[in-house]
Structure formats: C-alpha cells, structure tokens
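Q: Give me the 3D complex with adenosine-5'-triphosphate.
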Amino acid sequence: MALLEIEGLTHWFGGLRAVYNFHTRIEPGEIRGLIGPNGAGKTTIFNLVTGYYRPTEGRIVFLGRDITGKRPNEIGKLGISRTFQNLRLWTHLTALENIMLAYYGQIRYGLIGAFFNTRRRQEEEARIEVEAMDLMRMLEIETYAHRVVSGLPYGIQRKVEIARALATKPKLLLLDEPTAGMSPAEMLETMEFIQFVRERFNLTIWLIEHRMKFVMNLCNWIQVLNFGEVIAEGPPDVIRDHPDVVRAYLGEMVEI
Amino acid sequence: MSISVSSTPFRRSLRSKLQALRDVPVGSWFLGAALAVLLEWYIGPALAYALGLGQIPAIFGLSLILKKPWLIPSVLLYLVLIYGLPLAVMARLSAGLIRRLEARLSTGVYVGLHLVLLFFLLWAWSSADDYRLLVIRLLAINILATMSLNIVNGWMGEFSVSVAGFMAVGAYVSSVLMVWGFVNDDVFGPPVFPPQLAPMAFPIVLVIAGAVTAFSALAVAIPSFRTRGDYLAIITLAYVFIVRSFFENMEFIGGPRGFMNQPEVAGFPMVFFWTVFGIWVMRNYVTSILGKATNAVRDNESAAEMMTINTRAVKITAFLTHAFWAGVAGGLYAHVIGYINPATFDIRRSAEILGMLYLGGLNSITGSLLGPVLFMFLSEVLRPFQLLKWLVIPVILIYAMIRRPRGLMGFQELRIPFLERRRIAREEEKLHGAAGD
Ligand SMILES: Nc1ncnc2c1ncn2[C@@H]1O[C@H](COP(=O)(O)OP(=O)(O)OP(=O)(O)O)[C@@H](O)[C@H]1O
Ligand SMILES: [Mg+2]
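A: Here is the predicted complex, encoded as structure tokens.
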C-alpha cells in the first residue's frame, strides 16, 4: 500500500488556479522532490495535504484513509508532519518547550491533571521531557535546550523546527525549502542531516527545494510543477536534462 | 538584553547592594515583618499620635502624600521606625540562621511554611485597621481577576475585556444563592438552610458561581473562536454591556438599585485561601503542556495546528478558565463589600483590571501580583481626588507601556533564590541521570 496517494488535486484561490489535477503516489522510505519556479503551487500542495486548505477537487489518501478535508491537528496525529518555508517556531519559548509542545496530541492526562498538577501529569511531562531531550541530543542541539528560540542562530532554529516536527512521531515528513537562506556549506550539511533523520526515524520525506544540486543528490523521484501543473516527473537524471524543465526555469530567469 | 556600557561606581555599588538584598532569605524578611507588626501593635498608635498623625497610617500613609504633604516627614519617620528598622535588623541578624534552617527543608515544606507565615503576617497586619482589612481583601480579589485575565491576554495573546462582566455574573450568582440559602430576606424569605452553615457552603457556592460564569462565557467563546480573527475584543465588550443591562432589568434582585444582604462569609482567611488556591491552579495550568499550548497559539497558530494542538479546544479552555476565576473573584467581591449593583461592574472595572495586567506584565504570574499591588498603591495616593484618579492613572499606564511595553514583569518571573537553587539541583540531577545510563 502506498503511504500517500493523491488523485486529481485541484485548488482555486478565487479566480486563481494554484494547483491543477495533481496526482502522485509516494511509497514508504522515499525521498520525494517537488520543484518548480516561484508561485508554481508547491507550498499550496503541502498546505492541501496537511489540511490548511480544503481542495476544490481531488482526494488525498494517507495509509489507506481518506484525509481530504480533515484539520491539520488531526492529520498531524495520523502521522504527517512538516516544516514551513519561513520558520514558524514559537518565538517566546525555549527550544525544549517548542519540542515538548509538539507532544500535545500524545499526552494522556486531562484538564484535571493540568489544573491540580496530579502525579500522572508530572510523570507524563517528565517522560516527555526526557524524550524531547533525547531527540535534541540525536540532532545535536541539546545545548540550546533552555534558550529562547528567537535568539538562536538560523541554522539551529531550522533544526529545532525539524525536531519539533519529529516529536509528533510522523511517518511522512514534509519539508518546505529546508535550505532556504543557507550557505552552500550549510546546504551540504543539511543534506546529510536529512538522510540521517530519514534513516534514524524510519521516515518518508517529501521536500520542496529550489537548489538543484540538493534535490538531484537527495531525491529518488522528482516532480516538476509549473503554473500548478506537473510538467515533468522522473528520477533525477531524467529531470536534469528535461527540456520543459529547463524552459520553465529559464523563463523564470528571464522574467527576473 | 543590553549591557550598559558606562557603569558608574555609584551604579555598581547600588547593584551589589541590591544583589545583597536579593540574597537575604525570604524567611528573614518575614521575621522582620512579624517584628514590625508586633511593634505597630504595641507602640504604633502612641507613635502615630506623638508624630501628629492622629492614628496609625492605614496604608503606609499613601493617601496623605498629596492630601496633607506637610505630614510627609512624620509619615516617613513612622515608616522607618515601625517597618524599616525591624526589617533591616532582621535581614541582617537572622539571614545566616534562616539560611541554615531552610537548607533542611524540602521544597514543598518550604513553600507551605512561607504561605502559612504570609497568611498570618497579612492577617495580623490588616487586623489593626478596618480599612486595611478591606483593602487587602480587594487587592487579593484583583490579583485573582488579573491572573485569570492574563491567561487570555498574556499567555494566549488575545485581547479580552469581559473581566468585569464575568465578575458581575459570579457576584450575582453567588449573592443570590447565599441570600436565598442562608439569610432572612424580603425577597427570598426565610433561609432555606441553617445560617450557621453559610461559611461552610460559601466555597461550594463560589465554585457554582465560577461554573455558571464559565458557562455564560461559552456564549462568547463559541462564536469568537470558531474562525480566526480579532472579534474577541468586540464580542467581550458586548458581553460586559449585555450582562450589565441584564442585571439592570432583573427587578427581583434589585435591578439598577442593586442587591445586598450578603452574609458575612468573606473574611480575610476565606479570601486569602481562594486567592492562593486560584493562583496555584492557574499556575499549574499555564505550566502544563495543555496550558502552555496557549503560548503556541499566540506565537504561531498555524504551526500549533500542525503540531497536533487542538487550537479551538485550547482557546475555549483558556477563556473558560479565565471566566471561572473572574467569576470566583466577583463572588468574593460581593461578599466582601456586602452590596453589589450592575454599575459596580461596568466597563471601567474591566479597564482597571486591564490596567493592573498591563502594568504588572503579560505572561507572568509575578506580574499578575505586582500589577494590582502597584495599581492599588497609586489609587491609594490618588484616593482623595476621585476624578483625578481617572486622569492620572491612564497617563501613568501609557508611560509605563511606552517604557516597558510588556509590563514591568512581562515574560519574566521573580526568582526566589532558594527555589532557584533547588531547581538547578534537580536539573543537574536529571542531566547526570541521563548521562549515567
Ligand atoms: N492564501 C492564498 N490566497 C491567494 N492566493 C494564494 C494563496 N497562497 C498562495 N497563493 C497563490 O497561489 C500561487 C501558488 O503559490 P505557492 O505558495 O503554492 O507557490 P510556491 O510554488 O510555493 O512558490 P515559492 O517557490 O515562491 O514558495 C501563487 O500565485 C500565490 O500567489
Ligand atoms: Mg512555497
């Protein structure tokens, strides 16, 4: 069974057709790439899959369940998590708090526990703290645990965001431009990091990226989007020399 | 945080003095305060008379500062002799001893002991004067209301102004229940239960009043939190006006003339207990993952949704928690004053609580304590000039907001050195525990 299956996904923003008739099928263990010029509709697809928008048409099936129209927190609980194109950390909180809060959907105490600080709540939160610290140690960010995230270096914030996404225990992780704003050296590091994370957590990864080198080296299958439609798909070496892809990106360069 | 470049010797010595003050254990201050209370009890009236104050200055002589400025030297002398001296002496003499004693206490015993001490100190101090007794209870009620409002406006970053409306509902519900149950009243007839039981029943009545308030708050919460957007300020404003005209039209409980005859059940111990209990419950809430999710909603709601947080449930819970405790505060208020009318809880009361909140600091328990204290100090200074109060206080608030937009203690908590040391010890233990395996 495919991990994620999308059929005929179409989305209109008023009169703007952001995504048109998008199909895909992602198998467990893949690192899937989604590329395309600015405004092609990549982020919109992620927003549709994670429940931020309800698609105008189409069906999204995750692990055999139709998740079309479900809310993000429900989809998150089912096993999809993501990072955002622009960091969306909770800026007033520490790195550890950011990660611990992502366990919200897994906590097993109720309001009584919260109000009266019951033993059960204490044990539960102690356990979550240990888990969150372990997670931070694995990603080598544990030294920042008690620092407020808004003061951390950008690269660390990116890692905290990934750690937070992992805390919800996803099977499928969506990364929206994970190397945005990074230097080439940092990009190489991130590449290794993503591979490490995938193996360590047994994940399937679907990522949006502008850097060709990054996508080509990492992904096993790439889809190219332009004006909301897939114009090409295939393994990296097919995409690299695909005339339509070159044209789409060239077009963008001319426009700029 | 900015590091000041030019630190004059004066500043540095001031800072080291402040640091030395911080190192004095809380217990020493309490001892000093106890001594001060005793001193005031025995020689306070005589000293006040000798200094030409007539009677002991109720609230540190604050109301005399503007009204009779020529008495300021006498007041200062009184304050130094009765309060300053004992505090200074005890801070100096007992610090070592107290530090050795408290090292043997567990954190729980430490906190419990200090609360008990605080209770007796405040009780003894305020029993010396009826006005004090009134002010200290109103302060406690304001603290409760401010803390509850802080959950919504601070922790969750929304803007609600309905606190007065919640207090009104809590005040009326509890008053009606208490008068119906325990008082021989013109409207409600003879008491349903033996009046001696009133003090025992009052806590239950308060919980009911809080619950009814929270239920009425659903009328605000459901429409406001269904969609995103800033409707909350407007809807909560409407709530205050609707509640007010509702009670104005309830003739059987006095309508605009108000409602009285509340039994005397809200003495200092009752109010103190509920305030401490309320702060404890709300502290537990905002430090739990369930409650801290309000921070996630505030800082980035869409990320909160993806991270499995049920944002709608979080918002409604936080709002109802606010309503519950504001309702309890209203119930206490009604029984402290012994009379309420709809105008008691108009939008100005909300403005006052909002003032305390934004002065003290958002997202801070310490701020929720400090704000009401400072605000009531100010009110006390301006008490002789009723109208001026509503001119001066807003100006001071605006100034404070410009200087410190998050309030004095916004996003910060006061750290008590003893508890801080214990916390660090626990953290270290955890680290070693993790490294040991
Ligand atoms: N909430 C929205 N309302 C209206 N239009 C939107 C909205 N979000 C995106 N769009 C539009 O939909 C189109 C696709 O946007 P999308 O963000 O998916 O592009 P993208 O491929 O992620 O681009 P980029 O590489 O710049 O991130 C764009 O034309 C954009 O302006
Ligand atoms: Mg995008």
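A quick observation: Residues A 13, 16, 18, 36, 38-44, 85 surround adenosine-5'-triphosphate (ligand 1) (CB under 6 Å).
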